[in-house]
Specification:
The radius of gyration is 24 Å and the shape is globular. It folds into 2 domains: 192 residues, 3-Layer(aba) Sandwich (Rossmann fold); 215 residues, Rossmann fold, CATH 3.40.50. It has a 6-stranded parallel sheet with strand order 3-2-1-4-5-6, with helices on both faces. It has a 6-stranded parallel sheet with strand order 11-10-9-12-13-14. It contains 18 helices and 14 strands. The longest helix has 32 residues. Bound molecules: uridine-5'-diphosphate-glucuronic acid (UGA). Its EC number is 1.1.1.22. Belongs to the UDP-glucose/GDP-mannose dehydrogenase family.
């Protein structure tokens, strides 16, 4: 097939590279010319394990092309797939400017009928609105399809290749057949449905995951108070197939470009439609409280943060990504600084310079530099590098052997052998 993907973010790039690897001819359009040049030189705008090699190989073998030339890029394609960003906009609703710019350009430059799949996360009703717009006053037919994406950053290629399901919202049999053929290599159930349901599935899935995290964090906080161990509790409840073991890891609260934004969007959708969505509003509030809980633990252990030196290990919203959008580290560092603390932070991938424009902290070159002279260390991201730290060295470098571990990286018994006052999540003090 000849496929055109608009948008070279992590969804667009992963989809383009995998489709090309399956033997399709793929053109990926990115309107930022500098970004196109960088991608062609092998410098990808996203940090995704395995992606640079996949892109490089398919570019070299001539199946994958990047261009900023929209007018030519969209011609004579079997499928146009839109994968541009829909960042948070006003009042919780996503900002659809980039999406509509693409749709308008499609209508303006189309020289034939085309199939248009929307992969970006869009509010319910968007496919309908796009289809009406594209098909009004034109000699061509635009067959619009909703193909929501369920990739996670950091494991995007593996997620793409072995999804739990595909969801396709379409109106015509020809679209159904083309997408069935495209996704043939994937052995998974396919839910063919209408546009609105497909769009809702994407939001409903992310909001369910967000709810599951606020749920397990609340149970973990209770465990700390009543002497239960969250690892045992999560195992015991996760084995019930109605609940499932995934997304039961307690932590510092969820972040990233999707879960917070999509939960806010569902809240906004409920408010606009007179539906009680207080459950999801509470999920967001609890998530913020979970970020703040880290700071409260620090304050409690240190008797206040004024003049204290705090090492922050991990800034990215989770491991294996450099993304700090809505990362718990942002709220946590701001609060520590507000309370008079000084932060020295280390992250193996996050863009430190960009972060320093937003936050007041001193960057460190490695975890050991970060903990040197620190009154406490806080673990906010589950980077593998932290699991393997030389704990003896960490303890010796610190001013005070206190670790608030928001990701439960270490065994409490081991930490006490090294003489740490170790505060994990959901594990009682005596464990
Ligand atoms: C999420 C969804 O998992 C994907 O299915 C979806 O495609 C994507 O959003 C999207 O809409 O594009 P992602 O944001 O990459 O993917 O990250 P997740 O792996 O879902 O993690 C989200 C947050 O939840 C992270 O901050 C993570 O640390 C936290 N988390 C996750 C927990 O605190 N506990 C868990 O058990 C799992």
């Amino acid at each position: 097939m000849r496929i055109c993907i608009v948008g070279a973010g992590y969804v667009g790039l992963v989809s383009a590279a995998v489709f090309a690897d399956w033997g399709h001819h793929v053109v990926c359009i990115e309107n930022d010319l500098q970004k196109v040049t960088r991608i062609q030189e092998g410098d990808l705008p996203v940090f995704e394990p395995g992606l640079p090699n996949l892109v490089k190989r398919n570019v070299q073998e001539g199946r994958l092309l990047f261009t900023a030339d929209f007018t030519h890029g969209i011609q004579e394609q079997d499928l146009i797939m839109i994968a541009v960003g829909t960042p948070p906009g006003d009042n919780g609703h996503p900002n659809l400017t980039a999406l509509w710019n693409v749709v308008k350009a499609l209508k303006e430059y189309a020289r034939s009928s085309m199939m248009v799949a929307i992969k970006s996360t869009v509010p319910i009703g968007t496919c309908d609105a796009v289809s009406r717009y594209l098909n009004a006053d034109t000699e061509f037919r635009f067959d619009v399809v909703s193909t929501p994406e369920f990739l996670r950053q950091g494991t995007a290629i593996a997620d793409f290749l072995s999804p739990d399901r595909m969801v396709i919202g379409c109106r015509t049999d020809s679209a159904k057949q083309i997408l069935k053929k495209l996704f043939e290599p994937l052995e998974c159930p396919v839910v063919f449905t209408d546009w609105q349901s497909a769009e809702m599935i994407k939001y409903a899935a992310n909001v369910f995951l967000a709810t599951k995290i606020s749920y397990i964090n609340t149970i973990a906080n209770l465990c700390e108070e009543v002497g239960a161990n969250i690892h045992q509790v999560a195992l015991g409840i996760g084995l019930d197939h109605r609940i499932g073991p995934a997304f039961l890891k307690p932590g510092v609260g969820f972040g990233g470009s999707c879960l917070p934004k999509d939960t806010q969007a569902i809240v906004a959708l409920g408010e606009a439609n007179g539906v009680d969505v207080s459950l999801f509003r509470e999920v967001l509030r609890l998530n913020h409280e979970q970020h703040m809980r880290v700071v409260k633990k620090l304050e409690k252990c240190l008797g206040g943060l004024e003049g204290k030196k705090i090492a922050v290990l991990g800034l990215a919203f989770k491991a294996n990504t450099n993304d700090v959008r809505e990362a718990p580290s942002l709220a946590i560092i701001s609060r520590i600084v507000e309370l008079g603390g000084q932060v020295i932070a280390y992250d193996p991938a996050a863009d430190m310079e960009a972060l320093r424009r937003l936050l007041d902290f001193i960057p460190a070159a490695d975890p050991y530099e970060a903990v040197t002279g620190a009154d406490a260390a806080v673990v906010l991201t589950e980077w593998e590098e932290f699991y393997g730290m030389d704990l003896q060295r960490v303890g010796d470098l610190m001013n005070n052997r206190l670790i608030i571990d928001g990701r439960n990286l270490f065994a409490p018994q081991v930490m006490s052998q090294y003489g740490f006052h170790y505060v994990p999540v959901g594990i009682p003090k005596q464990a």
